[in-house]
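Posting for a labmate who doesn't have an account.
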Amino acid sequence: MNRHLIILLFLLLHNLWCGYGQVSYMPDDPAVIELKTLYLESGRVFPTGSFPLDRRDLNRLAVKLKEQTLSGEARERVAEFLKKLSFNREAIRLGSDVKLTYEHYLRTDEEWEDYYRLFFEPAPALALDLYYTQDGLAVIDIAGSWRREYDGFSPNNFFAFKPGNPFAHENQFLQKGYFRYFFGPMEMELGRNKVHYGPSRYSSLLLSQRLPFLDAFRLRLPIGPLEMTSLVSTLENREAAGDLVLSDDYDFVDNTIICTMHRFEYTFKRLRLGISGLSFITRPDNGFLLGDFFPVFSWHTADVGWHNLSMIGDVSLAPLPGLEVFAQYGVDDISLGSVDVGDDPIPSIDAYIVGLSFDRRLPKANFSLYLEGGYTHYLWGNFHEKYALSRAIYRYFMDRENQMLPMTSPFGPGSRWIYGEIGWGNLSNIGASLFFQLIDQNTLADLVTTSYKASSAIENGSRITTMRLGLNIRYAFQKALTAYMKPVLLYRDPLFWGELTLGCTLHHRGESKIKP
């Protein structure tokens, strides 16, 4: 038998791991939610809004919480969390996470072309994550997912039967591939991975987990209550469907699109403050400057070339046990014309997100409530036509036509939205959540055709409203097999209709410790 196949079978079949056996944690991972709940129950705000977190980060934050003045019951819960986390600086771990998912969709003819909803919201048919790590020292993590070839709506997530290609799938398989190393307290990561910055776990005005991945160089340095994160990334520069029309001397292939972010967070007992600078820069022929890597250096005070800079501040507050309220506010441009200061004829461009989350342990279940509302100006993420490749656009390389997503908000410029979710779980292996989403969008505002200038016609353009109300019910069979259903009621001017998703996931997470 092929030796590579033997190695793969070993990874898939070694002992099941019932703890938090992974190396990259996002805001909605169970380990993060549990630790955040422990913080909130103790009347403390979770110390960071920068993801991904490493197992070392979770251990550090849990130990820090345990050292605080807590009740005996709270200490026991933190101790149980640390036991499940199983952090051990001497252990070398070999791990795998495999998910096989089938989803079937029952839908009427009323639908609209929403690339994110039709491609990224459906689960991939196969997801495989392999990692090799020594806790607190280094991580090598590689993950891929198999998705059917995108061609609009499809009745399931599994196969695309086409003449000459009965199992058509996207060849963009690799979703993670990074190396992480720790130099004392400082964490360095190089490669492809998901990221999320900001206090809200659903969306952000910064880079968020709605993006498939980033190819980036990232540094994180915690110094007591202060944490600094620095990120430099290159973005896909191949033209997407419906993309910008560029001149002959300013094209996609010959220009590098660079994304840089420098973020600072300071945590008090109940309060966490954050300030971030996010820039998009276009330069020919892989043109990098040292200033791209310097914290704060490019925040309006240094000449690093024309760059699309946004300044975003955020705040998180834990006023009551289990409750967190948060806000995020950003500006792309500030017009000073109203105070008789000479300025470009660009209006003040702003955006904000406000929300709250509440998590409570009940005797036989866990209860959670999440609510957020957001707004973006009709020029949010936009930029001058001469440097249009610096607009906040995420391009995803695909087999047929590359697709675009907004990078600095979930729905792009000219949007207003509300999202809410009520969930409960751990009741006889049953979990359920009721969610509501309302989006109101300016039909004249986008990141491709909208000119970077003040326009009352665009500001007051016609709007379209989309609503989704749904129920997500899951039942877990011995943690390996999960069946679920999601009925959804939708509205989009002027129609109502219903959809139903039926799915099941076979999940195997394994981890083996190798003695040094």
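Reply:
Got it, the structure tokens are right above this. Residues 1-18 have pLDDT under 50 and may be disordered.
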